[in-house]
Amino acid sequence: MQNNSDDYELVRRFLSGDEQAFNKLAVRYQTRIYWHARRMVGSHDDADEIVQEVLMVMYKKLSTYNFQSSLYTWIYRITSTRSLNLINKNKLKRIISFNSDKDSESSFNDDVIENFEQKEKFNKMEKYLQKLPSKQREVFILRNYDDLSYQEISEITGKSVGALKANYFHAFKKIKDHMEEDE
Amino acid sequence: MNKEEMIIKYLDNQLSAGEKLNFERQLSESAELQSELRKYADIHSLIDELKEIESNQLYFNSVLPRFQRKQKAQSTVFTFKNVGYVFSLVIMFIVSFTVFNLIYQGNESANLIKFAESLTTDEKIELLSTLNGVTTTEYLNKLYSDFYGSNIETGLADISDKNQIAVSYNLDINNIEEIVTDEEFENIYNELLSKSFFTEEKL
Lengths: 183, 203
What we know:
The complex is a heterodimer. Chain A has helices at 4-15, 19-41, 44-61, 71-97, 101-104, 116-130, 134-144, 150-157, 161-182.
């Protein structure tokens, strides 16, 4: 799926001072970062914030990247961590401000999704995803949307493959149950 | 393995070849299992549809320029912060130095007063003798000669001589009115009045 050697070359060039190499990496990964974050946090504004944060982390921390794992795994790890942090932060905000989940649900009226039909389906699915516990949501998204193997997800989340499969099963079942309830 | 677990694993390609064959055999025999599988497969299809989203490229084109602006702003803030830190450190150093000096000097004055109070008159004279590299005698000599136009040593010798004279004549200056008559007093008084001890320029 990803061209590792090309990624490595761009990282090396960036570390030698070539800013253009970083720009190429940013453009290459920004869409995946955005959609992963968007599915995790369920809001365009939060996802946009995460994209900017992840790019900043990449810019500052690429020197610590050890070339042992794929670059996209490394980027997904940063994105996932940032997304989970934001979810927890928002949860805390809700508790402090005594708002219900409903009040703080994101507005789906952003213009990122252009196709109206796709937008409706996306919003429906996003609603189900947001009902999942964040860890189950993470596995479900990485496995189904980002097409990553359990081994890769394990590298990103630091969980065992067995635990991930269990999380995936529960997530899938819950989404099916929520969909049935709505019908 | 229950029915739902089998379905999810089947769709997720996690069944072994044997398990897959067994599941497909059960599937062909059970309408209920087929219906259940369809529900999960529909979710899978929906997700597949949503993997590639027709998105607004204007937004994605804006991501990098915004990041670059933010990054530039951060490095400017970082530079200003550093300059600010250095400036603050210099100011803090100057202020601390001044405050320390004031406190230290204040203590020093207090200590000096305390020290001076603890000295006897002789010790004070001894201490003064070392001031400015000029001995007390030299200092007093200068003052005396500036004032009277003569050396203090000579003056002191005169006084000493007069004292000796007084002693030799067994005169006690405190009981002088018992020794001197009224007439003699009158004469001494008149003599003192006529004597000009201090000239104007000496004053």
